[in-house]
Amino acid sequence: APKSAILPSRNHPPRPPTIVEPASATARLVRGLTTVGAPRAQMAAGGKRALFLDCDDTLYHNGFKTAELLTVSIAQYCETHLGITYEKSVELYKQHGTCLKGLEAEHIPHDREHFLETVHRVHLDFGADARLREMLARLDHGSSEVRVFTASVASHALRCLEHLGIAEQLVTPERPIIDVKSVEFRSKHHREAFTIAQSLVRVAEPALCTLVDDNWTNIRAAKAAGWRTVVVGHVSRYGEPASGLEEADHVIGSIHELPTILPEFFVCEHAQQSAAALARAE
């Protein structure tokens, strides 16, 4: 679905964020690599920091082609299966954060699982990203929880990661994808989704959570939940300069610049070299 880009209030001058200039699945597998319905009693402990990476238009960027295909897919599904016009499907999204939430809020009969799995079967036109793979190889999983946090379903996110050649770096049974099902079908436009995501990784304080996302509304909701925020893209999908996004703590041109603003989530090159030398000696 289209992503909203809402300008900051004119009554409150925006606080300039840190800006970094751009640098010169199978169903079985998905079930095993997604977080769904974890017991609340097991979620509240722990003191690690957490890094949450959005998938679409964050881990890759293709001029929002995938987002447009998803919009068309959702509209076609609504017309074919639900008898709803394109205009109505867009209206549901704008009013409720996702079309699915709109269907439920307005009590329009639908099959939730069929809707989610069907509308996300779109063509992906991007391929492996060696530079991203190298960056992810330096993530410090020992001191941080790193998760893909998507507003879509895990099956779609996993396909994207496989196309990028990074699935095994970000998704394991111990580090499952957090998707719309994981957060009890809350939209990332609302802070409740971030509160649930925080509990899933057992991080006690919101300030220890960081969201990396391209969607301005998601960034605002995460900030309202007490998270640190990084917006990807110096300009929004609709042309607004991200320097005016008050809720963004950092602005980067692409995901590849992440280590320059969040070095605490990465192992330094010297430490990596020492570990490699030790491994060779053993």
TrEMBL record:
InterPro entries: HAD-like_sf, HAD_sf, SSM1_domain. It comes from the Eukaryota. This is Uncharacterized protein. The lineage of its organism: Eukaryota, Haptista, Haptophyta, Pavlovophyceae, Pavlovales. GO terms for molecular function: nucleotidase activity. GO terms for biological process: nucleotide catabolic process; pyrimidine nucleobase metabolic process. Pfam families: Hydrolase. It comes from Diacronema lutheri (Unicellular marine alga).
